[in-house]
Amino acid sequence: MGKWLILLETSSAKIEDGNWGKLLANGVTGWRFPSVSQGGHVKNATVLIVEDDLTLAAAVAGVLADAGFVTTRATDGQQALQAFFSLRPDIVLLDLGLPLLDGQIVIERLRDLSPATPIVVLSARAELSERVRALQGGADDFIFKPFSNEELVARLWARLRNT
Ligand code: CA
Q1: Sorting pLDDT into bands at 50, 70 and 90, what band is 35?
Q2: How far is the CA of 162 from the centre of ligand 1 (A)?
């Protein structure tokens, strides 16, 4: 059994030829990128980050961009719906405490627009009732703030793997 390695790079062009050789020499027999297949075409995964804390949003966008995602941002609930409708992202990372439209409502509206797009909630709301409502409303996962960057990337990628 060979080793599989998940490479979180934007494209194969970013990896030098020599590095592929090193991977093979180390027993790695395959790799994959954070890309998704749409209608037979593979493209880099686009994530819509919905967060009204601009400092946190910028930090998250940086982490996800480094992990190979194409990122786009919305700062309130209404903007989230507009961005979703115009951009059709592959996955949504959603805060709950948002201006104009609460994240719980955004989940329900997004589910009406797209039954299949994964929604991962990133929230400081720790109450069981909030988690249950989000999941029942259509969210696929729930990450608490504060969070680890590695876990955030891993969970988004895990959701995309299932789509
Ligand atoms: Ca918030």
Answers
A1: low
A2: 28
